[in-house]
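Ticket #4471: structure export looks truncated?
Reporter: QA, pipeline team
Priority: medium

Steps to reproduce: submit the single chain below to the structure queue and open the exported record.
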Amino acid sequence: MARQSAKVAKSIPQGQVAESGRASAIKMAMEQIEKQYGKGSIMKFGDKNENLTIDVIPTGAFPLDIALGVGGLPRGRVVEIFGPEASGKTTVCLSLIAEAQKRGGVVAFIDAGSDIKPEGISMILSHFRWYRADIVIGSKRHPVSKVNYPWYRKILSLGYQSLIKILFGLSIRDSQVGLKLFRRQVLEDVLPRLLVKRFAFDIEILAVAHHSGYTRIFEAPVELDFTGVSTITSANFWKSIWSMLWDTLAVFYRLHILHYYDATNKRRWRYDPELDFRVNLP
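Actual output as written to the record:
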């Protein structure tokens, strides 16, 4: 009997034995996680749990919602979205903003790579409600702001904002702080028109919004401690400056010469039921 059992064991392919061992290890690990953190804390892709109810915000990308397993990003969780440059991180964030606002939420879009202290969020939200603003932006040059950043960046910021006022008529002292709040109506009208994905994105959305009649744009104080490593002698620093100027002039050209952003410009609009507003097809 023992010999027969040994022969049967030897007849099983080695790959199947290894696969069975992996499956068993995975099952044990999942059971341990669920025991420690609760039912539904980990799932296999494609599994459905009818008893699992999670309040989520859809991403606006149906395949991504399916891949997440619960139909979107869970509320009350900190979610990190990372990837290479120009890979669509901002697009996903803006889509999430639209979905959250669609459900009555108030959303702050913060550049996580900046040096802003999170305590400023409550201040900018207060400004947003107090002024009944279309847009509120964090500003390093607000009289109440507490900032610590190099002198040469202060000079460059002053020069760039003077250029912005001349080109677009925006009476703002700073536009490059990664902290801004928008009304949903502004995003509905402006987002489908935008083209810039990199250096002048902030200016494009502000210039197009102002041009479209959303003129209630206010600045709010921020607390910022610059910790960047780029210096005035860095080749990458000046390359970024040049790219931002080039993109800014391109926005001016499309806005005032081509009139690309005007509502009368014929585009291929399509209503997106996931976002609940129109999008501009390329």
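Status: closed, not a bug. The export was complete when the record was re-opened. Leaving a note from the reviewer for reference: The radius of gyration is 25 Å.
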